[in-house]
């Protein structure tokens, strides 16, 4: 029996926020990279359907997107293999796969939420981890993703009062959904950006502490995007890169080990498209 004839039922981690420009794509691409560096089979799904930036951040030129996968599903039904519509990201011996957002705005409008969820469920059967980058709205698709997810990374920044207001509304809405308390994890990005608003005040407003806090490092983040190399894969390191590695270590209950990548198996890569 082939490896991918068995259902894996992979972990789904959704990156969600009620504010824009909080770093969902930067964090999701880095988490995908670090999990892949540890030898996990990882797929990153870009469901910021209209304005997704995953391919831009990783300097990918996808030949197929989520829209193409939906078209194939409409024609072929369950016979479609979602993994055939993915784009690989490779850096040295680290590899993970991306389901790209539609290339055209009109294609994004025509993505059906139920079909999109079917895509995620299919990918769960192939990958250890399915990471999903989303838009900053409580849309039908996002609500379905929140239900399906193993973990929801709810991201925020402490910069302006309207952003914090949206974060509080989002946090309260998620609490009303009665998820397990370990499912929703509040993550603060750009924590040491210049602002007069204290983290403690925001935590008091939200009624709980942040699960993880990421530092502000605009230069490192910008260089990473320009080069198409996630921070966790860069030599030399940075404070933000270390904090992102620590976040993955907390999610996987393991201590960061910079020798892991020496043991990344190569054989499973070919099997995905075999």
What does the model show?
The protein is an alpha/beta fold and 274 residues long. The protein is built from eleven helices and eight strands. The chain has helices at residues 24-37, 54-58, 66-76, 105-109, 113-124, 140-148, 161-176, 199-206, 218-227, 239-252, 267-272, and strands at 11-16, 42-47, 87-91, 94-99, 129-134, 151-157, 184-189, 212-213. An eight-stranded mixed β-sheet has the order 3-4-2-5-1-6-7-8, sandwiched between helices. Helix 8 links the parallel strand 7 (184-189) and strand 8. The radius of gyration is 18 Å and the shape is globular.
What's the helix and strand layout?
Blueprint lengths: L10 E6 L7 H14 L4 E6 L6 H5 L7 H11 L10 E5 L2 E6 L5 H5 L3 H12 L4 E6 L5 H9 L2 E7 L3 H16 L7 E6 L9 H8 L5 E2 L4 H10 L11 H14 L14 H6 L2
Parallel strand pairs: 1-5, 1-6, 2-4, 2-5, 6-7, 7-8
Antiparallel strand pairs: 3-4
Helix pairs in contact: 1-10, 5-6
**Radius of gyration based on Cα positions:** 18 Å
* The CATH topology: Rossmann fold
Average of the residue pLDDT scores: 87
Low-pLDDT sequence parts: 1-5, 260-274
Gross morphology is globular
Classified in CATH, the superfamily is P-loop containing nucleotide triphosphate hydrolases
**Structural domains: how many:** 1
**Overall helicity:** 40-55%
Structural class, from secondary structure content?
Answer: alpha/beta
Strand content range = 15-25%
Oligomer: single chain
Head-to-tail CA distance between termini: 13 Å
Q: Based on DSSP secondary structure assignment, what is the total number of beta strands?
A: 8
CATH class: Alpha Beta
> Which architecture name does CATH use?
3-Layer(aba) Sandwich
